[in-house]
């Protein structure tokens, strides 16, 4: 069973989906431009961020698999395949998408649709999986291409196709007919927008999420069943705000949350175990106050005993300095080079701007993947967005610190991390 995260107005809840095979076909032609091509990739990543863990084994009958085809002129198609054994986690998929480079050639959309079906879907689809294709293009295709291939995906009625057209030209009837042909003349499957930036708007991703998984909302008091973690290797570094704004009671709740996380996740068997989790904790205050409360460790006793000894700084907040300190001091990662480095920030974002840019750059160089827990209504959204590297779906929110150990919030966060 797969899960799509969403935030309801009243509660934390989930959508449930069966086995999904999703293929994105994205325009990499010269007219798109490098900036817009990057927005296309961000759209793919942000959409898949809404999903739970990807299928660990591409041959599994359950879970979600994702493929991507980027296309330009004839013969330049590049793909992340649905059955690629290297794509066994969300982080592996993100890395593969980010490595895609803009081709900057012509536009052979019909041939790209044929390529997507013949190479990603026809022979590698799973019998019980729902197959969805999302096509993005900014304009008419090269007249040398075969326009009869526009409906190539429609020859398989079990494949659901959505076409996203970007730019003013799709206001023209002729060009809109191209999109309708791609989407097999299905109502509600043609989506148009003026700018590529609209691709990454939360409202639009909500709409695509509904296309991929038209599940129903849960009731406020529903606590969903929890999918087991795939036990991928992850080094989780918590950065805990020790400023006076936190308060002693909230500080205690944050420590309790970290310990509950350590008890809930499967920890590594040793420092060189290539699977499972290790934890580290850095508490920070002023620009000169950073404490590694415990370095990266797989030992639950060390984590628990260290947390019991952590004292609240009750200081100011200099997050940038803390990130730099964490990158340089949390412990040896050489034995687990394949592990994702996950930074978890427990902060309201109200902090000194000193060294913040440098801190974020340091995290990027370390290939850190950020997640932010921002609780309460008094937050600095600009700082939160900066630390989250612009990925708003990686910011977890709640009314207060009491939410940290509520089952709905806690289990949702567990699925995100693992």
Protein traits:
single chain; 418 residues; alpha/beta; Rossmann fold; 2 domains; 6-stranded mixed beta sheet; 11 helices; 14 strands; disordered N terminus; signal; VWF_A; extracellular matrix structural constituent conferring tensile strength; Collagen type VI alpha 2 chain
Explain this structure to me?
The chain has eleven helices and 14 strands. It folds into two domains: 193 residues, von Willebrand factor, type A domain (Rossmann fold, 3-Layer(aba) Sandwich), CATH 3.40.50.410; 189 residues, Rossmann fold (3-Layer(aba) Sandwich), CATH 3.40.50.410. The N terminus is likely disordered. The strands form three sheets. The chain has a six-stranded mixed sheet with strand order 5-4-3-6-7-8, sandwiched between helices. It has a six-stranded mixed sheet with strand order 11-10-9-12-13-14, with helices on both faces. A two-stranded antiparallel sheet has the order 1-2. Pfam families: VWA. GO terms for molecular function: extracellular matrix structural constituent conferring tensile strength. Keywords: Collagen, Signal.
Helix and strand layout, with pairings?
Elements: E1 2-7, E2 12-17, E3 20-27, H1 34-49, E4 64-71, E5 78-80, H2 90-98, H3 109-121, E6 130-137, E7 159-166, H4 173-182, E8 190-193, H5 202-212, E9 234-241, H6 248-264, E10 277-284, E11 290-297, H7 300-309, H8 319-329, E12 340-346, H9 356-365, E13 368-375, H10 381-387, E14 395-398, H11 407-417
Parallel strand pairs: 3-4, 3-6, 6-7, 7-8, 9-10, 9-12, 12-13, 13-14
Antiparallel strand pairs: 1-2, 4-5, 10-11
Organism: Hippocampus comes
GO molecular function: extracellular matrix structural constituent conferring tensile strength
Pfam families: VWA (PF00092)
